[in-house]
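Supplementary notes for students who missed Thursday's class. We covered one full example, reproduced here. Read the sequence, then the structure, then the short commentary at the end.
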Amino acid sequence: MHAVDAAPTPASTRVHAIDGLRAVAALAVFVFHLTWRSPVLYDAARPVTGHLDIGVEIFFMISGFLIFGPFAKAMVANERLPSTLAYAARRAIRIWPAYLVVLTTITVLAIADFDGTRGFLKHATLTYLYFDDKGGKGLALAWTLVVELSFYAFVPVAAYAIARTGRRLVGACVALIAVGAVMQRVVAYDLETEMWIRILPPRLLMLGMGMLLAAIYHQGEHTGALGRSLRRAAGRPMALLVVALAAFALLMALVPAGTDVGDSGSGRLTKELLQTLMATCVVLPIMLPTGDGGRWDRLLSHRVTTYLGAVSYGLYLWHIPVLHLFRTQITSEHVITAATGWVAGLALSLALAAASWHVVEKPLMDAVARRLRPARSKVAA
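Structure (token representation):
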């Protein structure tokens, strides 16, 4: 998967570290969902683990950075923007095949419950949130994939719009972040907001932050004052860690997990803003690396961590159906029995994730890459 025999360059280290960060985010989401299903874990660790859905915010920021990266690089170099067709092919093959395998499996196992073929198609196409009638019950966390799909559609449109307005990359990304922050407040205080409004606009906060970091990364030394400030902050990972931990402590105090405080508009908004701050502190040293990155980079760039990052999408997709299979053990109030369910659930989730990567995801991505390579060569010629 990686050129392990070559000496690591700063660029390769950054890519490996992003994979490792994916692994951390996926494991955080696994523990978060486990917390709400296991009485033992809920009673013992809920104040901390009940807030590990921050992994989703991290995923969204990583997506913004990686999806927008090629567009930002092209704009900085004053080159033609990436092919929309090639972009769409890569994004489609990344999100749908592995998801459809899981969706079909949980349908066969009767874990999902759809309102006929139309209901299944709504979930299979990741459009079900746009309907008043959702078409039944599918994969619980597929809502994040609907958001991700909206990112895929939005980013190239935003990139072409930015390119036509003088390539003011950083300013455009800051504007998106501002729109996202405003929309976070709107949806936090009004649960009756139309669902199509709730899907993308408030998530521009996380997407925009990832896009901003991509713009600054590719601008390099030529970035403005904001970029220089963020690069200086990225060079102080321990200070960022302190800020992230302080924000986490504040979140636990102001919006305790499992209480009705988070059901208020102010509670929802506080949670989103603090989690965005924490996620930013976590990703900043990885997206804008300075020097060797220290222990955090080395940990995230380790072979084991990067492999877990590679299979993290499969882990994300499979873990809830697997936890459902082990629900008898996991819901036990006996610590040993519950712990057996936790370990078995993680082990099977990782095994299915590895199978998904090696049998479905990587072969298809490689096949698409091979098909697109001649087109790139022809353009270069």
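Commentary. DSSP finds 17 helices and two strands in the chain. The longest helix spans residues 335-380. If anything here is unclear, bring it to office hours.
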